[in-house]
Design brief:
Strand order of the largest sheet: 2-1-3
CATH topology of the largest domain: Helix Hairpins
Strand content: 5-15%
Number of strands: 3
Bound molecules: fe (ii) ion
CATH architecture of the largest domain: Orthogonal Bundle
Radius of gyration: 19 Å
Low-confidence stretches: 1-30
Number of domains: 2
Helix content: 40-55%
Distance between the termini: 39 Å
Mean pLDDT: 88
Structural class: mainly alpha
CATH class of the largest domain: Mainly Alpha
């Protein structure tokens, strides 16, 4: 190495800087000022699409630029738009006193807002120089609870790829039991342990991998764990929820 930056170095630095910025932006978005007692909150569009924390082609050859462009700019953007529409519809229903669609609006908010949250975590969970076994704190927790990293990956893949239709493989921390749990999340909001804190999320909707892996969800999952997962991001997330 002659000391000059390689393309991978540049991408890694850009990824880390953008990841920190995105995490900060998300944290501020999650903690808005509460409305004054008795007042209708002036919420118009509480959710915003965070920028992709790297270039569209940063994860090639494992995920193509077109996949990331469509996934972020179309699919993730759609969940942000849907969540804001659901909030707006609920506010308007309260203003007019209508209750006929309230349940449907609430269900749409759960779907779209959960989609927005999971995609935000997903981008941060990948890095151009990712992959391999974790060395930090979460790595220790995984080895203690699952016996070995290989045993964890085997079960994580089995659960994550078992989701019928569209969904996510989610490794989360469950604070009441004080343990790691793996959830086979359907769509974005079903099959979870209430109160769990997602640490690592793998999108197994077909839009996440079909252009690159066609129907081979298992191959996508293997490549994702071997080359894309960002364990430092997972450790940062764990540190935020477990002191
Ligand atoms: Fe997705």
């Amino acid at each position: 190495m002659d000391g000059s930056l390689t393309r991978r170095d540049v991408l890694r630095r850009a990824s880390l800087a953008a990841g920190v910025a995105a995490a900060g932006a998300m944290a501020s978005a999650q903690t808005p000022d509460p409305p004054a007692a008795g007042s209708e909150p002036m919420v118009v569009s509480p959710y915003t699409l965070p920028p992709l924390p790297y270039a569209y082609d940063a994860l090639e050859p494992y995920l193509g630029a077109r996949t990331l462009e469509l996934h972020h700019d179309t699919h993730h953007a759609g969940y942000v738009r849907g969540a804001n529409e659901a909030v707006s519809n609920l506010v308007e229903a309260r203003r007019t006193g209508s209750t006929s669609m309230a349940g449907e609006y609430a269900a749409k908010l759960a779907f779209h807002a959960s989609g927005h949250v999971l995609h935000t975590l997903y981008w941060e969970n990948m890095a151009p120089d990712g992959g391999g076994a974790p060395q930090g704190r979460v790595g220790g927790m995984i080895r203690r609870q699952f016996g070995s990293y290989d045993a964890f990956v085997k079960q994580f893949k089995a659960i994550g790829t078992s989701v019928e239709g569209s969904g996510w493989g989610v490794l989360a921390y469950e604070p009441r039991g004080g343990l790691l749990v793996i959830a086979p999340v359907k769509n974005h909001e079903n099959v979870v342990v209430m109160g769990m804190e997602p640490l690592l999320v793998v999108d197994v909707w077909e839009h996440a991998y079909y252009l690159d892996y066609q129907s081979d969800r298992g191959k996508y999952f293997d490549v994702w764990m071997e080359h894309l997962v960002s364990w430092p991001a997972v450790d940062q997330r764990l540190a935020a929820v477990v002191r």
